[in-house]
Structures are given as structure tokens and as C-alpha cells.
């Protein structure tokens, strides 16, 4: 009878060979270690998604009980901004935890994560310039009204309003070529990102996940 280690090696070698020979669209195998328990995969986002032209890397860690137990999958280097992806690279996706099945593979997991990115519509919530339909003069007038309203509230509110107005005015006054650098992109992380990143353990598999939104 084959040992657990032998079963592990046979299964992982088969998956790696499949990833090299017939990788899913947008998924490519970059590297793996001699022990076969750490695999780096690259995801290339589709042109019809909000991540057009962007690539990301996943680290897939396997223990000796794989495929009976799920892999640990995290984003490394640059982490995409997504409502189900935390800034430390941890991913809230049911098949990585409670809904794992030994029938799944490293390739199918990576494809599911890429699909999750492709279906997202919330990466950029809004951009004021240069896409704003309002001309600079109208925007400038709106800023003046905002400051006047807040001046009557409190000195602190007035100071905050003045700083905000100055920053926005710099965007309005900038040439079109410079506005993209000056205008912040309002993007979306999970609502509990800061608390989770500050308190989570190193492995996302040590987290008790709650899955309630699969719409993105």
C-alpha cells in the first residue's frame, strides 16, 4: 500500500504536469520547490474585467495530507483590491476552507480565484477627474459652498474642510495629464480589513470564515 507521502507526491506531480502542459486561461505555473509543498502561480486578469492588464501571484502551500485537506492559498507581492481579499493576501473563498473537496486541484482553485476577480465590479468606486462631467468652474463653486457650510460648524470642521478644499482645488487646477496622479482612486477592501489584518494568524486556514456574499 502506498504511504501518505507517496500519494502526496504522485498527486502533486500529476497536477504540476497538467498545469505546465495544459494551464487554464490566465493561469500559469511559475515555480515550485523540491518538496512540492510550495507552488507559485501567476494570474493574468482578463481584458473585460476591472483588473485589465494586471497580473498577480498566488502562493499555494500544501501539507502532507493534501488532497484530503485544502491548500493554503494567499496572494503575495501585490495584493488585488477586492471585497473578498484582505490586504495581507488572505482570501475569503469557501472552497479554500469549509467547501474544499479532494476532487479540486491547484489549477481549479486558481481558476476559481481568477474568476472571482473577473466578476468583480467594485474595484474602483468612482474617480472625480478627469472623468467628471462637471467643468472645473462648477466643481470650484461646489467646494466654496462646502467650506462656507462647515465654517459655521466648528473650528476643527473648518480646518478639515479647508485642507480638503485645497487638495481638491489642486486636482481641478492640474492639467489633464497630471490629474490621474493627484486624484485618489476609491477602492474597496473587505469592510473588516483593518481589524482582520491586525488580529489574524499567519495562515488563513486558522480563521473561522463566514461566507454570506458570493455576488462579486
UniProtKB/TrEMBL annotation:
Q: Which PROSITE patterns match?
A: UBC_2
CDD domains noted in UniProt:
UBCc_UBE2W
Q: Residue ranges of region Disordered? A: 182-216
Name the Pfam families for this protein.
Answer: UQ_con
- The UBC core domain extends over 7-165
* Keyword annotations: Membrane, Transmembrane, Transmembrane helix, Ubl conjugation pathway
Which portions of this protein are annotated as coiled-coil regions? none
InterPro entries documented for this protein: Ub_conjugating_enzyme, UBC, UBQ-conjugating_enzyme/RWD
Parts of the chain that traverse the membrane: 156-175
| Sequence ranges of Basic and acidic residues compositional bias | 182-194
- Superkingdom assignment: Eukaryota
In terms of PANTHER family, this protein maps to: UBIQUITIN-CONJUGATING ENZYME E2
- What name does UniProt use for this protein? UBC core domain-containing protein
Classification of source organism: Eukaryota, Fungi, Fungi incertae sedis, Chytridiomycota, Chytridiomycota incertae sedis
